[in-house]
Structures are given as structure tokens and as C-alpha cells.
């Protein structure tokens, strides 16, 4: 019996007439469940679905099994305890408006891809009466989306909540001097046309420079003209490469005049109603090249007889809320940026330098306002209590990680020597206790070396290194985690609205994909809906020291959900914490500034607290800052890819040791461990056989020989082509294919699966 399920039903999705006819043993069909989830994205938890269909007792158990089956089949995914169709558009999404339909209605695509298929089309609704935002073609908007019933039209409608600021008219390009002496601008992005520059508008640009230009109006004849606004540097310099990423990802990098004026007018905070902590020898421990210091630490033994062997840990964080107030130009710009973005030789900061590097930076020997948390731990690493304080502090020393570690290891210098016994050793003693608590908690322990690009003076790559991970790094990391937990606990206890840092458990589909991959390596992962980080740690321990250790760590990382911000708490799977909020970096993350304001309001710590207007907007703000975080990560990754590609461009035909990091129908992705760089080997370049793709085994194998290549294989490759601007490299395989692992029977099963796959459109193989 057909039933319409509407998001406006507010409960039982069936009509009154239908309900009268339903028997007590009524159970909805799969299609009805999927339809309800699509039309009620904000009420699509297991309990919501059971309530909507009036399921009780054994029917709820049946529903649980049905939903698990739908997840196992890859039809549904689970985020924040809400179910959704895989590839479905989120209820609140960032959209790009690209055109109009025949009736003049605006049409949009999601700004970020949802999967490998075609992006869904969204029909944009404009508010009646003209009270809401009025977007146009080319705008990027934040919108609430609703699925439609029209099988022939757009899959969704969208109601615009916010229009993002439009990009400037300036575009990037490469300045070229042609043989006839004329000047052209070679576009960086394909959709941009080639431009002509007249000599009077050259502005000092030289051949090969990356420039920012202002296009003029297109003339009726010939190419459009432009004038050079800024010479960003040679194409081979890092400054140019990072600027490409800044523009490509639409990252705001120039502070408006009113923001700069506001920051310059700010006066330093005074002691006023703050606690005076200037005699407490707090120290900052940061990277040697850090320009801003937003956290300082101190530790001492607990003198309470009721807590033998315990410690008191103090973490002080720059009081950004003292200077950046809600609704000001500074605040609006910080929210638009969402976070600072870090490139190898530059930082695009969230706040102007007057705030980030001066007034809020916890400089050595200078009075600075801070929001501090004092935490008491038992000897086994369990937190006993904590309290927050708004203080005035004075950093006793600015230390670098290697410098602090060297002092503990017996090589103090002039700065660390005088504070070794009173400050540094108690910090390390406290870390040893907190580490016991961490070991008991068993967070996900991925071991992925972080590569760092070292640059020459001209901004080009000098070399790529993997910095040593010291106990000094781990100490600060664990202190910050505990401070973040304390912030979330306090705000929850005070019933104060906040933005959590959430991290969902891996979806069942990702678990199954990881399980299949591990089986190809002879490893197993237990099944179960309630996965724990310890189960992944067991896998990682088994490959510790093995050839495939790095790859397994990488694949386990890929199986994890993406952490994000939300006013609704689901816990943090990776850290194995029930509640977690970012508190320790308000200079570079807007989420932390919100948490600071929440603490100030909840604990009545003075001016600058969270307002009701802010609290009401936390859901929208969470979507925005989660997006800016992903934007920053993509820009940073693209810049590193371009730098490494440019670095290796002089090594065409060189041989490299590599490992296979991805297998597709089109070919093999390989990674150069020495550089952390990726490249591609097209299947068409693999000689000697017709290669078939086996998705389950993550391999390409020859139809005739049965030999091939599999994920995690170590191989030797030759670099044959580099496109530095795209950050792309193409390689040639030098290692012969190997006999595929497993029995002859399993090989023929894989062959059958692959042949079935190849009968579908888009499957490809090559014979050479």
C-alpha cells in the first residue's frame, strides 16, 4: 500500500486514513524507509524512524537490522547519529549557482563533490516579499536543501541562508614575452581566456613571472586586454605557488581597511578584574620558527594529601576574546576566514598581525591577558578536578621543541639551564602521569610521518625532511587535549551552547572496505557496529616495523570519518573521548574563539562572552568553519604537490623507489616515500598483457599470465612527465608484475568479478 511520507508530518508519516487500515504488525518497506530518510534529514535517527512508523518491541529490532543491512550495502551512511543516503546532499550545504532553467529559476551544484557521480542539481528558492538574500549566477551560497519528488527536474530545492562574498575581479596568470615582443597572460585556470598586456601596463613583469592582473572589458575583435596589478614572483618560487592555491581556493588573504584600522585602534588589556598570575613561571614551547604563541604551560606536584603522587597542570591560552568582540569588523573577517592557513613559507592568518603576533601572542617577559585552566590529575592519569581563570600572565621563557627536549636529555643551554629543575622537569613528570591516562584511554595511534619542506632563500625547494617527533611535542599535545576536554565539560555542566569538535566512527561501508584490504595482506578486522580505536590499534601493532607499516597506517586513516565542528555532540572517536571542544588555539581557529566566549559567559568572567545571537547561529557557523578548515587543508596540500612536482621536474628519466598507494581501472597511483609525493602510471603503459581491475583485491592483473600489481606493492618507477602547475607527475613501471597472492580458485573468482565489472560502461583494460 503506497504512502506519502512528508517532512511536514512531524511524527507518523502516514495519513489518518492509512493509519486506520494498518495492522499491528505493519512494517515499512525499504523504499518507504529510504524515502522518509531523504525527506526528513534532520529527523533521521533510528529512534526518529521507529517513532515515525509507530514501531515497537520486536519491530524496533527488525528496524535496527534493516538499517544495518542498508549501511552494509553502501546505500546509507551515518553521521552525527543521523542516517542519510550515500551521496545525498547535506541538509545545510554550500552551493555554487551556475545558471537558470527555462522558467528563469536559479540552479546550483554543491560546491564540494559528493562522490564519483554527477553532482545533483538544486533549484534555488528566493524568499517571498524579497526579505531574504537575493543571489545571482556565479554566487556561492549557504542554503538549506530539501529533496524533491520530481524525477525529471532538480533533485533538490534550496533556501538561501547566506551569500558568500564575491571574489575580486583580479585573476592570476603567467606573464609571457612572445617572439615578436608582445606580452600575453597565460591563464592558470582553464576557464580563463588568454589576455594581452600593453607595454604601459606591464608594471615590471618579466617573462615567466606569476602575476595578478585586472582584465579589461573584452573588445569586439581580438583577445581581451589586461593590466598587471602585482608581480607575485617567479613561477619557480614558493610564493607564487602558494598564491595560486590562495586564489584557486578563494582564501581571503588581504585584510580590508576597516579591519586593519580596528586592529590598530585596540589598546592592550589591563589587569582590571583579572587574577594576577604574572609570577607563575609559565613557558611557551613551540616550533622554532613560530611567530605567534597562543599557549603556555606549567606543572607542579599536588600538595593535597588526598591525592598522593598527583600533579597540577596549568594551561594558559591567549585571551583573544578580550580584543575580538562579536559583530565587529575584526570578528566578521575572522569568521569569514575561519582559520589561519599555513604554507611552507607564509601564513595567511585569521587575525591581523597586530592581534595575532602582538597583543595576543604570549611573548616572553611581557604582560598578556589569558584564559587559563588549572587541572589536577591523580597518579594514574585520571583528571580529578579543574577550574578556569581569567588572568594576566607573563611568559618566563620562549622555548622551541628541540631546545626543551635537549635540556631534559641533559644538554641545557643558557635559557633552559636556570629553569630546568623548577619548570621543565616538573612538566615532564606531569606528562608521564598524563601518559598513563592516555594509554588507559587508548586513542587511535596512527603513525604517519609528517614531512616538512625546507626552502632556499629564493623560495624554491631545498629538501624534504621528516622532523623527529619528540616527547616535547607529545607533552604539549596531551596538555592541550586535556584543556580542550575541560572546556567542553565545563560548558556542558553550565548548559552553555558551544561548538564541539566531533569525530564519528568509521561508517560500516568504510569498515568493510578496510576489512577487504586487510585480507589481501593476511590481516583481519573483527566485525561489529561498535568499533573502538583499540581494534584499529591492534592492526597497527601487527604491522609495526613491517614493509607495509606506512601504507596500512595511511589506509586506516582513509577509513576514518572526517572530524568537524557541530553544536551537537557525538564524541570524538579518534581520541576516544565523550566530549571534546577546541579551546587552545583562538589566534588561528574561530571555533576556539567561540569556546572562549562561551566560558566567559558561563563563568561570569567579564566582558566578551557569548551572546544569545551567537548561540542561535552556532549550527550555521559550524558548517562555515568546517568548510574553511577543509578549504585550508586542500590549499596546503595543493601547494605541497606543486612544490614537489617543480622540485622533481629536473629529474625526468630518473628512477625512484615507490609503493603502490592506489589502484583504479585507469591505472596505478604510486607514492615516493622520500618525498611524500604521488604520481600516476596509466594502465595503457603497462606492457605484456591485458590488465583487468579487481576492486575487491585492489589490484590490476594480467588476463593471460595472472600476474599483476596490488595495493601496497613496492616497485621501481621512472619519472617520464611533470606538470608543476598542476602538481602532477606521470611515471613508467620498471618492476615486473608478480604472481597474484591466493589460490588458483580465488584468482579465477577475481577474474570473473573483474570481467563482470568490465562489461559495465566505464571499465577499461589495456593490452600492450
Automatic annotation (TrEMBL):
GO terms (BP aspect): mRNA catabolic process
Enzyme class: hydrolase
Basic residues bias: start-end ranges: 745-754
A GO CC term attached to the entry: cytosol
Keywords from the named record: Cytoplasm, Exonuclease, Hydrolase, Nuclease, RNA-binding
Catalytic reactions of this protein: Exonucleolytic cleavage in the 3'- to 5'-direction to yield nucleoside 5'-phosphates
Sequence ranges of Basic and acidic residues compositional bias: 9-26
Residue ranges constituting the S1 motif domain according to the UniProt record: 653-734
Keyword Nucleotide-binding: no
EC number, as in UniProt: 3.1.13.1
Keyword presence, Metal-binding: no
Pfam families in the cross-refs: CSD2, RNB, S1
Name the record gives this protein: Ribonuclease R
Naturally occurring in which organism (per UniProt): Mesorhizobium waimense
Gene responsible for this protein: rnr
Amino acid at each position: 500500500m503506497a504512502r506519502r511520507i512528508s517532512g511536514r508530518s512531524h511524527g507518523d508519516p502516514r495519513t489518518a486514513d492509512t493509519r486506520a487500515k494498518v495492522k499491528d504488525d505493519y512494517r515499512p518497506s525499504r523504499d518507504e524507509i529510504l524515502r522518509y530518510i531523504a525527506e526528513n534529514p534532520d529527523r533521521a535517527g533510528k529512534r526518529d524512524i521507529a517513532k515515525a512508523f509507530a514501531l515497537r518491541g520486536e519491530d524496533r529490532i527488525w528496524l535496527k537490522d534493516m538499517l544495518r543491512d542498508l549501511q552494509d550495502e553502501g546505500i546509507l551512511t551515518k553521521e552525527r547519529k543521523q542516517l542519510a543516503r550515500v551521496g545525498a546532499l547535506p541538509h545545510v550545504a554550500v552551493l555554487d549557482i551556475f545558471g537558470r532553467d527555462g522558467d528563469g529559476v536559479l540552479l546550483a551544484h554543491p560546491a564540494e563533490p559528493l562522490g564519483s557521480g554527477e553532482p545533483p542539481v538544486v533549484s534555488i528558492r528566493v524568499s517571498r516579499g524579497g526579505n531574504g538574500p537575493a543571489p545571482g549566477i556565479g554566487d556561492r551560497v549557504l542554503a538549506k536543501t530539501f529533496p524533491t519528488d520530481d524525477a525529471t527536474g532538480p533533485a533538490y530545492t534550496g533556501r538561501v541562508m547566506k551569500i558568500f562574498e564575491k571574489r575580486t575581479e583580479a585573476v592570476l596568470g603567467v606573464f609571457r614575452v612572445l617572439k615578436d615582443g608582445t606580452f600575453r597572460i597565460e591563464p592558470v585556470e582553464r576557464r580563463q581566456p588568454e589576455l594581452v598586456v600593453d607595454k604601459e601596463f606591464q608594471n615590471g613583469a618579466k617573462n615567466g613571472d606569476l602575476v595578478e592582473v585586472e582584465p579589461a572589458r573584452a573588445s569586439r575583435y581580438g583577445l581581451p586586454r589586461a593590466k598587471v596589478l602585482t608581480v607575485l614572483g617567479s613561477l619557480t618560487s614558493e610564493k607564487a605557488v602558494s598564491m595560486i592555491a590562495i586564489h584557486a581556493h578563494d582564501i581571503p588573504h588581504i585584510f580590508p581597511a576597516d579591519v586593519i584600522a580596528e586592529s590598530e585602534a585596540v589598546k592592550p588589556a589591563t589587569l582590571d578584574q583579572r587574577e594576577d598570575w604574572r609570577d607563575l613561571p609559565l613557558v611557551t614551547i613551540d616550533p622554532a620558527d613560530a611567530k605567534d604563541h597562543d599557549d603556555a604551560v606549567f606543572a607542579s606536584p599536588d600538595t593535597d594529601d588526598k591525592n598522593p603522587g598527583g600533579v597540577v597542570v596549568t594551561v594558559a591560552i591567549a585571551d583573544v576574546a578580550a580584543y575580538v568582540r562579536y559583530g565587529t569588523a575584526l570578528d566578521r573577517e575572522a569568521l569569514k576566514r575561519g582559520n589561519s592557513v599555513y604554507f611552507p613559507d607564509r601564513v595567511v592568518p585569521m587575525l591581523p598581525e597586530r592581534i595575532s603576533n602582538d597583543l595576543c601572542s604570549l611573548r616572553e617577559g611581557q604582560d598578556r591577558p589569558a584564559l587559563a585552566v588549572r587541572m589536577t590529575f591523580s597518579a594514574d592519569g585520571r583528571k580529578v578536578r579543574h577550574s578556569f581563570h581569567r588572568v594576566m600572565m607573563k611568559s618566563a621563557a620562549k622555548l622551541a621543541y628541540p631546545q626543551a627536549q635537549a635540556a631534559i636529555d641533559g644538554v641545557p643551554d643558557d635559557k633552559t639551564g636556570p629553569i630546568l629543575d623548577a619548570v621543565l622537569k616538573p612538566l615532564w613528570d606531569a606528562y608521564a602521569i598524563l601518559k598513563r591516562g592516555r594509554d588507559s584511554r587508548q586513542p587511535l595511534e596512527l603513525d604517519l610521518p609528517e614531512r616538512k619542506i625546507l626552502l632556499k632563500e629564493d623560495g624554491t625547494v631545498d629538501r624534504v625532511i621528516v622532523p623527529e617527533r619528540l616527547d616535547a611535542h607529545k607533552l604539549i599535545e596531551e596538555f592541550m587535549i586535556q584543556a580542550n576536554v575541560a572546556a567542553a565539560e565545563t560548558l556542558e555542566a553550565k548548559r552553555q551552547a558551544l561548538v564541539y569538535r566531533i569525530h564519528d566512527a568509521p561508517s560500516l561501508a568504510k569498515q568493510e572496505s578496510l576489512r577487504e584490504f586487510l585480507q589481501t595482506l593476511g590481516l583481519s578486522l573483527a566485525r561489529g557496529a561498535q568499533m573502538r580505536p583499540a581494534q584499529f590499534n591492534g592492526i597497527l601493532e601487527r604491522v609495526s616495523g613491517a614493509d607495509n607499516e606506512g601504507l596500512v597506517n595511511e589506509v586506516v586513516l582513509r577509513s576514518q570519518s572526517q572530524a568537524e565542528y557541530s553544536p551537537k555532540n557525538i564524541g570524538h572517536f579518534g581520541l576516544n573521548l565523550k566530549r571534546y571542544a577546541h579551546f587552545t588555539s583562538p589566534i588561528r581557529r574561530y571555533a576556539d574563539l567561540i569556546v572562549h566566549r562561551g566560558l566567559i559567559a558561563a563563568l561570569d568572567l567579564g566582558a566578551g562572552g557569548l551572546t544569545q545571537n551567537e548561540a542561535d547561529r552556532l549550527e550555521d557557523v559550524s558548517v562555515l568553519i568546517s568548510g574553511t578548515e577543509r578549504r585550508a587543508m586542500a590549499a596546503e596540500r595543493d601547494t605541497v604537490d606543486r612544490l614537489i612536482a617543480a622540485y622533481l621536474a629536473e629529474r625526468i628519466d630518473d628512477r625512484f623507489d615507490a609503493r603502490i598507494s592506489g589502484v583504479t581501472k585507469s591505472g596505478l597511483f604510486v607514492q615516493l616515500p622520500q618525498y611524500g609525493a604521488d604520481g600516476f602510471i596509466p594502465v595503457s603503459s603497462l606492457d605484456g598483457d591485458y590488465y583487468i581491475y579487481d576492486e575487491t583485491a585492489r589490484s590490476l592483473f594480467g588476463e593471460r599470465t595472472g600476474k599483476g600489481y596490488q595495493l601496497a606493492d613496492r616497485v621501481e618507477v621512472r619519472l617520464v612527465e611533470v606538470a608543476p602547475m598542476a602538481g602532477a607527475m606521470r611515471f613508467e613501471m620498471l618492476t615486473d608484475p608478480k604472481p597474484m597472492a591466493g589460490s588458483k580458485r580465488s584468482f579465477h573468482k577475481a577474474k570473473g568479478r573483474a570481467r563482470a565489472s568490465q562489461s559495465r560502461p566505464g571499465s577499461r583494460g589495456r593490452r600492450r
